[in-house]
Known about the structure:
With 301 residues, the chain is an alpha/beta fold. It is 38% helix and 21% strand.
Amino acid sequence: MRRLPSLPALRAFEAAARHGSFKQAANELAVTPTAISHQIRLLEEYTGLCLFERQVRKVILTDAGVELYPVLRDGFNAFEAVLQQLGKPIARRRVIISTTNAFMARWLAPRVTGFQKLHPEIDLELHASDQAVDLGADVADVAIRYGRGPYPGMVVEELFTDCFAPVSSPQLGPIGLADLNQLPLIDFKWTHDHPLNPTWKNWFAAAGLPWKARQGQLLFSDEGHAIQATLAGQGIALLSLELVADDIAAGRLTQPFGPSIPGHTYHLVRSAGHVPAPHVDSALAWLRSQIHRPASPSAQS
């Protein structure tokens, strides 16, 4: 069991020694100079030593006071530092993931609850853009990019290649190949032109059917909007089977006929100039684990 003098006495001594004045110590501790003098006298009685030489306008430490002062000073400084650190909010770890608008809305966002349950200590910030962001500028820690690359200066990992097929709403009833001439064809603009984009023209070629531009098409600037129009029964669309997998499984959409044609590849991309922090590694591992897994049931309702 420690045998120590009172804390008020120790505080009074440390403040008086630091200021060289009982009056200034009293101002700091919000007491009277008489109270400071009383506490120091108690400390001197406890130690059996004289700690200050009292002069008219100041006090000077004795040899015993000089020896005691740095011990108390350092101790109080350590108390203050620890207490301030304990009072600071713990900085939360955050991972920023960037991907395309459609992939964000149709694939990533419905799954993030699973990550939050697995890693409640990590915040996710989701950044949606059809334009590639600069990972070197700290806009994002990780990107899921869709295309064929290359991605210079990046660490690149293939996730999966999707495929496209005609998809429609059950509201339209049973549909066959012959209905392609009567139903509106829903389409969307690709961000980058590429001869291998899974377009209706390329699908007709794969199906061995003649292609000609027609009236009555619905063309959207955004893939997600094309999916919404298809869900609303506004026509038949050529869509990524990966992005509408949950809708097909739930019966909200059907794939009435084939063939399917290959799309592009989703790549997991991060800057080659940065070693990922452990919380970023956790997000990368979780993204890999989600490949071809359905979204949570609550997200499908």
